[in-house]
């Protein structure tokens, strides 16, 4: 029995081998003769209608859910660049902002429209600010950010690569133009705690900004750009800088400032004390302060939901129109068989 | 002077003409020891000549290298490019124009923005430090910055120009040629020759052929003659079936005929002999009623010729060397029927004959007195022999047009029946000859011989005519024996192939060096001509033109000839213009001499107009150069694609001149193949080459090019749109590596798969519905509207991708953790959308999904994610902005996936809607066939026939047309009789 069994299995193996070979030969034959098995989809009316309907059926619910999610996000946006200029300087905002002798504090009052659940994200928004300008994007040195003064080829950072004959750390236009308005939030005379840790991408903190690299000779030139840095804190902990140095994609962008980790109730009035240091007046940019909760989709934006609903409903309309036309002209193509010559 | 050393002091001066291309003239002189010796072409060896009968010769080199006559004659192989490729170049220029325009717009905006950055010493966008900058961004020299930016932008938007297209097309074409070479349906077993695409440049051109110019001998025919039928003493013998009859039978669907033909093919083992009739074979003719006539008939076949026997020394078998294959066929037929010609000397011909009385073989020899040779004007040949008994015989064979009028009153016994048979044979595509003889008396012969010898030996210019005149005197009062029918054997499947090509709307012109009669015969044989077709014959072989030629004033004669050709052309044109459907189509037959005049500059337009209007065109007696000229005329004047097919050295010019040259790798040497673009073994493979491979390749390449433009436009425009949001500074939205790898990894393979594998309909349907081929001829798939449509689709997709992305990911947080997007995240998202859209668009336009397509399309998308992961995992030093962008930022964000889905679907929507509507309401031909296939209606023969009938253009040539015409006639006759 066993011997027999062994025999058959050997035979099987041989047969299998042969069949594999012949199958290979067959596939090769089919390949060279361009006769491979293939699926040949044809756009038949039923397929078309089904596809369009299916698309509509899937897209509209997604759109509605997305819209709902977006609506559930509470967002407060307050523009402050004009208000925070004293009346007498409104005629010449640029000279006001450039005058370093004036203390530029300013207060805003925000009313919470609805209950906002923690965490509430604080952003500052700049408009008409080209962080994506080629000269600007290139003006940094990743090696220096990671290794400090050990990396000395900072030609990409010009003209902000050094001052007073010494190299600057961090170098380049991006770092040099660091945003330096500061905000304090006060609710009913008690200051809200703003968590300013973990606002930057973890990969940036751990792998792009050195833990042993300290700011050096920074913002020491004749022409001061934006904010300065605490020389005793390593770059990997300078989260404002890290956030700023992830250049924005579009000329209107937000950057995270911090998080308020307690709920805000509806009709709470929040006083914001801010230092209006940053110059957006030269180029006509706007500055806004944004408080926003977040959903699984992120912040408030109806576009995605509206687009989904729009695409979904238009495909349903197309399918209906198509169906109507199809039924009205039952077989218009049979009469058109003769080739248009 | 037989030793090399003898030449030590040999001194001579050769004076000769300058290098020229004339192969058959040479003027020169050799001055040796103050004596002049003339040098003529006989003393000249051309380049590449080989010594045959001697081991060595002594000579002097006259011209070398490029100066040699052979070299001066050769034209360099023309570099051929297909129409599609030429149009592709134009599209590239167009795209380049767009590129320049985009860069120009960009640099203007950039220049303005840069100039405004610094005004009166005040910085606007201070964060860019416009006060301390390089020339690229210098506000004080904004114009320079703008020009520099223009160059940057050219590089940035350079992705618009699909440089990889050329590489991809090359790859695709090579693979396509491999498929052509590998096709078993185009493999000829007998000679072990597959099709060979010698250049891969012209694959898609094969799908656009409008006119085929074909050689005859060796291309349409096998260049072998077969003795197939004969009519002796008013009785028709021979049951062989000709190729034409076979094709007609197949068309009618008669199974009986088919069986007969198969039997036939088995037995036809003797080359040149396909005769089958037990009544006269194996010596049984002696029992036939007119045995004496049959004997004379066969004897005439064995004697009246100029062939030479070659005895195989091993087995004693005899083969023949003859001037023309039909002559060989006669001698072979005589041998097979018992009259074996085995020896020829200067004065005698020896034959083994079957003696009807004893039934044994006897040797007889005839002394050969005169040979009155064949010439195209005489259309007959005769021999005068004296038999062993001493009787003088004049044996004659010739064309029916000249033979019947030379019959004696008492020799017309079988005239009626023979004429009837001849007509039958001719309609079956056979070449017929009339055989007749006469006995001479000594006195008559003596007188003739004297005159004839005198005429032959005269030195005047009209020697030939004199001899002809005398010969004419004796070739009269002949007694009719019968007629022979020889099949100029068409290659296998030629009528079917021509029929298919005609149905596909391809015109076929035959250009041959043969006589007009032969050409017309072949025209009938392959159904290019048929009864009821009005033939416009333009010939300069008429008696008037003969006399004209003899006249002294050559230029006047030429002018008169030209006038006559012109007149004939105009008459033909009038006939063409006045013709209506009922009169039947026209056929144009023109001979070489007339062609010379018809191809002159002032006449050729008229000639071409006439030729295009005719259903069939046959040019006979045409020289290689004329073949090339006709080809060029058709190619340049009608701007349609021409395909020339031929097998001999005389077709080389035509093959090189045509858009596509197809060589038949037959028996006539390799010259045609060497100068061809594609070589096939048999004419019938042309059907598959054009209708299947040509159609597919055309479709593949044109779809591929359109798609390539689409995908590069879609990609390039996303970059451009982003620039508008980055104050045209030239900052790319994508990581550098993403940019570089776009055409290499993520989108290239599916296009190549499309170019290599896509099929709109299978080979079976391509052949079943030949009219599908018109899609290529009319260039429907690569029209400007289609190209622009794809380009617009690209722009639309780019707009959808870009604007949907930036609006969905504006300033707000894009994920739960409140993070906002940066440049790299927007770039990655957009790039993901581009990869998805471009690949799925491909999936939508592919009609033939093998697993290879699946692998490439879905694999391309998967590979993008794998690449993103791998690249993102590398050290930030390498991966720069892409570092962990996918794994940390994009992948965990639901909005990223939702945006991808939305952008993908909305980008595909326009194209999908368009193709749905087009397919349903305005289907193209291939789409109809696809539809039938998917409905399963193609299995219903009746329905299929209906579709075919409807889709057929009324064809004018081919046996389908012939069959229809004859059935129409039959119907008319029936109605008349009722």
TrEMBL record, chain A:
This is ALA-interacting subunit 2. It comes from the Eukaryota. It comes from Citrus sinensis.
Automatic annotation (TrEMBL), chain B:
GO terms for molecular function: ATP binding; ATP hydrolysis activity; ATPase-coupled intramembrane lipid transporter activity; magnesium ion binding. Residues 673-923 form the P-type ATPase C-terminal domain. The active site is at residue 215. It is a multi-pass membrane protein. Gene3D superfamilies: Calcium-transporting ATPase, cytoplasmic domain N, HAD superfamily/HAD-like. The chain crosses the membrane at residues 91-113, 142-167, 708-725, 737-757, 787-809, 855-874, 894-914. It is found in: Membrane. ATP binds at residues 215-217, 327, 374, 397, 431, 512-514, 621, 627, 650-651. It is an enzyme of class 7 (translocase). Its cofactor is Mg(2+). It catalyses: ATP + H2O + phospholipidSide 1 = ADP + phosphate + phospholipidSide 2. Mg(2+) binds at residues 215, 217, 647, 651. Keywords: ATP-binding, Coiled coil, Magnesium, Membrane, Metal-binding, Nucleotide-binding, Translocase, Transmembrane, Transmembrane helix. Its EC number is 7.6.2.1. One of its GO terms (biological process) is phospholipid transport. InterPro entries: ATPase_P-typ_cyto_dom_N, ATPase_P-typ_P_site, ATPase_P-typ_TM_dom_sf, HAD-like_sf, HAD_sf, P-type_ATPase_IV, P_typ_ATPase, P_typ_ATPase_c. The keyword Nucleotide-binding applies. Pfam families: Cation_ATPase, PhoLip_ATPase_C. One of its GO terms (cellular component) is membrane. SUPFAM superfamilies: Calcium ATPase, transmembrane domain M (SSF81665), HAD-like (SSF56784), Metal cation-transporting ATPase, ATP-binding domain N (SSF81660). Residues 449-476 form a coiled coil. Belongs to the cation transport ATPase (P-type) (TC 3.A.3) family. Type IV subfamily. This is Phospholipid-transporting ATPase. The lineage of its organism: Eukaryota, Viridiplantae, Streptophyta, Embryophyta, Tracheophyta.
């Amino acid at each position: 029995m066993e011997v027999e069994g062994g025999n058959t299995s050997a035979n099987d193996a041989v047969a299998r081998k042969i069949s594999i070979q012949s199958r290979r030969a067959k596939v090769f034959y089919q390949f060279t003769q361009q006769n491979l098995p293939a699926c040949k989809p044809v756009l038949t009316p039923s397929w078309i209608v089904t596809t369009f309907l299916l698309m509509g059926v899937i897209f509209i619910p997604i759109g509605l859910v997305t819209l709902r999610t977006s609506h559930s996000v509470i967002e407060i946006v307050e523009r402050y660049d004009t208000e925070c200029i004293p009346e007498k300087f409104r005629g010449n905002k640029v000279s006001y902002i450039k005058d370093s002798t004036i203390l530029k504090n300013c207060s805003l009052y925000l009313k919470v429209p609805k209950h906002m659940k923690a965490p509430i994200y604080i952003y500052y928004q700049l408009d008409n600010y080209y962080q994506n300008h080629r000269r600007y994007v290139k003006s940094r040195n990743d090696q220096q950010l990671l290794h400090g003064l050990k990396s000395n080829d900072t030609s990409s950072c010009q003209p902000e690569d050094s001052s007073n004959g010494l190299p600057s750390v961090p170098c380049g236009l991006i770092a040099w133009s660091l945003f330096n308005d500061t905000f304090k939030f006060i609710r009913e005379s008690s200051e809200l705690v703003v968590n300013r840790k973990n606002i930057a991408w973890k990969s940036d903190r751990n792998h792009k900004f050195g833990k042993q690299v300290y700011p050096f000779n920074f913002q020491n030139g004749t022409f001061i750009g934006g904010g300065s840095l605490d020389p005793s804190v390593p770059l990997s902990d300078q989260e404002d800088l890290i956030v700023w140095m992830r250049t924005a994609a579009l000329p209107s962008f937000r950057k995270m400032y911090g998080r308020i980790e307690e709920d805000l109730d509806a009709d709470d009035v929040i006083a914001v004390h801010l230092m209006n240091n940053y110059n957006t007046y030269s180029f006509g940019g706007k500055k806004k302060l944004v408080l926003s909760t977040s959903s699984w989709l992120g912040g408030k934006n109806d576009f995605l939901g509206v687009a989904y609903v729009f695409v979904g409903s238009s495909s349903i309309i197309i399918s209906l129109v198509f169906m109507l036309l199809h039924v009205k002209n039952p077989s218009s193509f049979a009469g058109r068989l003769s080739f248009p010559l | 002077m037989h030793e090399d050393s003898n030449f030590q002091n040999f001194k001579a001066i050769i004076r000769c003409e300058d290098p020229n291309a004339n192969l058959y003239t040479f003027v020169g002189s050799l001055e040796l020891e103050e004596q002049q010796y003339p040098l003529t072409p006989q003393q000249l060896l051309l380049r590449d000549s080989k010594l045959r009968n001697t081991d060595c010769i002594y000579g002097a080199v006259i011209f070398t290298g490029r100066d040699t006559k052979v070299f001066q004659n050769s034209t360099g192989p023309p570099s051929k490019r297909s129409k599609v490729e030429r149009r592709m170049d134009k599209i590239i220029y167009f795209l380049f124009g767009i590129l320049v325009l985009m860069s120009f717009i960009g640099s203007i905006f950039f220049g303005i923005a840069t100039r405004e950055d610094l005004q009166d010493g005040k910085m606007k966008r201070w964060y860019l430090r416009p006060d301390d900058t390089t020339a690229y961004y210098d506000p004080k020299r904004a114009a320079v910055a703008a020009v520099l930016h223009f160059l940057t932008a050219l590089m940035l938007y350079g992705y618009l120009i699909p440089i990889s297209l050329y590489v991809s097309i090359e790859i695709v074409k090579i693979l396509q040629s491999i498929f052509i070479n590998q096709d078993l349906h185009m493999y000829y077993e007998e000679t072990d020759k597959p099709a060979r695409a010698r250049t891969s440049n012209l694959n898609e051109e094969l799908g656009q052929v409008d006119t085929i110019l074909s050689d005859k001998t060796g291309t349409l025919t096998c260049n072998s003659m077969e003795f197939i039928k004969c009519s002796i003493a008013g009785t028709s013998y021979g049951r062989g079936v000709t190729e034409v009859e076979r094709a007609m039978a197949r068309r009618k669907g008669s199974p009986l005929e088919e069986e007969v033909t198969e039997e036939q093919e088995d037995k036809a083992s003797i080359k040149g002999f396909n005769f089958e009739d037990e009544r006269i074979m194996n010596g049984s003719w002696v029992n036939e009623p007119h045995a004496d006539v049959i004997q004379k008939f066969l004897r005439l076949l064995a004697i009246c010729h100029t062939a030479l026997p070659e005895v195989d020394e091993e087995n004693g078998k005899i083969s023949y060397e003859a001037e023309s294959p039909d002559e060989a066929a006669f001698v072979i037929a005589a041998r097979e029927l018992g009259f074996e010609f085995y020896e020829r000397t200067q004065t005698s011909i020896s034959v083994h004959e079957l003696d009807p009385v004893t039934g044994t073989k006897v040797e007889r020899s005839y002394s050969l007195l005169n040979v009155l040779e064949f010439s195209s004007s005489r259309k007959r040949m005769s021999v005068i022999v004296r038999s062993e008994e001493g009787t003088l015989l004049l044996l004659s064979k010739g064309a029916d047009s000249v033979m019947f009028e030379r019959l004696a009153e008492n020799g017309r016994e079988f005239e009626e029946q023979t004429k009837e048979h001849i007509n039958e044979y001719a309609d079956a595509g056979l070449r017929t000859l009339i055989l007749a003889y006469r006995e001479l008396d000594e006195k008559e012969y003596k007188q003739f011989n004297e005159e004839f010898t005198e005429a032959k030996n005269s030195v005047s210019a009209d020697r030939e005519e004199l001899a002809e005149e005398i010969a004419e005197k004796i070739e009269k009062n002949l007694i009719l024996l019968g007629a022979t029918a020889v099949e100029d054997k068409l290659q296998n499947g030629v009528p079917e192939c021509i029929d298919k090509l005609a149905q596909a709307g391809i015109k076929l012109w035959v250009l041959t060096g043969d006589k007009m009669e032969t050409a017309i015969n072949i025209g009938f044989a392959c159904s290019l001509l048929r009864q009821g077709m009005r033939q416009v014959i333009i010939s300069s072989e008429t008696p008037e033109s003969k006399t004209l030629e003899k006249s002294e004033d050559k230029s006047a004669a030429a002018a008169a000839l030209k006038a006559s050709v012109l007149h004939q052309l105009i008459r033909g044109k009038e006939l063409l213009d006045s013709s209506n459907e009922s009169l039947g189509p026209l056929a144009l037959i023109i001979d070489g001499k007339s062609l010379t005049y018809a191809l002159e500059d002032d006449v050729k337009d008229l000639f071409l107009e006439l030729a295009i209007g005719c259903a069939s065109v046959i040019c006979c007696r045409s020289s290689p150069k004329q073949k090339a000229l006709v080809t060029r005329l058709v190619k340049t004047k009608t701007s349609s694609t021409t395909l020339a097919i031929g097998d001999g050295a005389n077709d080389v010019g035509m093959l090189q001149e045509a858009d596509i040259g197809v060589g038949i790798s037959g028996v006539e040497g390799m010259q045609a193949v060497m100068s061809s673009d594609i070589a096939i073994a048999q004419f019938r493979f042309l059907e598959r080459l054009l209708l299947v491979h040509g159609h597919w390749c055309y479709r593949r390449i044109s779809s591929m090019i359109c798609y390539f433009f689409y995908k590069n436009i879609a990609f390039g425009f996303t970059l451009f749109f982003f620039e508008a949001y980055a104050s045209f500074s030239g900052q790319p939205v994508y990581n550098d590596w993403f940019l570089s790898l776009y055409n290499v990894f993520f989108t290239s393979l599916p296009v190549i798969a499309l170019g290599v594998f896509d099929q709109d309909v299978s080979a079976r349907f391509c052949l079943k519905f030949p009219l599908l081929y018109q899609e290529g001829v009319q260039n429907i798939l690569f029209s400007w509207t289609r190209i622009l449509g794809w380009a617009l689709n690209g722009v639309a997709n780019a707009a959808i991708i870009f604007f949907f992305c930036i609006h969905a990911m504006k300033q707000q947080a894009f994920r739960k953790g409140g993070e906002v997007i940066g440049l790299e995240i927007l770039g990655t998202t957009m790039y993901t959308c581009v990869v998805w859209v471009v690949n799925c668009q491909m999936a939508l336009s592919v009609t033939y999904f093998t697993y290879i397509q699946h692998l490439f399309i879905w694999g391309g998308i998967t590979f993008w994610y794998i690449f993103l992961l791998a690249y993102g995992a590398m050290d930030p030093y390498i991966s720069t902005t892409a570092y962990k962008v996918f794994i940390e930022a994009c992948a965990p964000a639901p909005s990223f996936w939702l945006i991808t889905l939305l952008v993908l679907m909305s980008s595909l929507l326009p194209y999908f809607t368009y193709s749905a509507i087009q397919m349903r309401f305005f289907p193209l031909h291939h789409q109809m066939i696809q539809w039938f296939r998917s409905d399963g209606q193609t299995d219903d023969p009746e329905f299929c026939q209906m579709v075919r009938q409807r889709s057929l253009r009324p064809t004018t040539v081919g046996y389908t047309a012939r069959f229809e015409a004859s059935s129409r006639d039959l119907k008319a006759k029936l109605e008349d009789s009722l």
